[in-house]
Amino acid sequence: MLNGSLEGGMEDWTLDLEQYELVRNLILTSIEEFADDDGTIALKAIIDIAQDRLGDHPAFPGGRLKNITTYTKVDLEARELIERVPKRSPQRLRLRPLES
Questions:
Q1: Residues 6 or more apart from 99 whose CB is under 8 A from it?
Q2: For the whole model, what pTM was predicted?
């Protein structure tokens, strides 16, 4: 289990490691595979891809992936693997460039 506590926040959440790894890999792969020419993809597109590809997976008995995808996205931002595109609405994401 992973535990994501929001510093100063009012709630904690936990996520099954298998669920996290499945969604993590899906997010990173989706950005690489489906990004527009500018290297970005809408968060909604990633959520739709997750729902389509993982909605029937046994690791997700409830079948809804919006929250799990969003929680995992926030974790990947904190780990500096992906980033939000500033001043874009709806929210768009891209892989963070690797530092040399």
A1: none
A2: 0.86
Divide the 100 residues of the chain into consecutive groups of 10 and give the mean pLDDT of each group: 48 81 98 97 98 96 93 92 94 87
Q: What are phi and psi of 76, to 5 degrees?
A: -65, -30
Could you give the domains of the chain? 15-95 (1.10.10)
Close Cβ partners of 85 (under 8 Å, ≥ 6 residues apart)? 40, 91, 92, 93, 94
Q: Which residue, among 20, 19, 15, 22, has the nearest Cα to 1 in the 3D structure?
A: 15
CB 96 within 8 A of CB 80: yes
Tokens standing for residue 43: 């968060």
Q: What is the pLDDT of residues 15-33, one digit of tens each?
A: 899 999 999 999 999 999 9
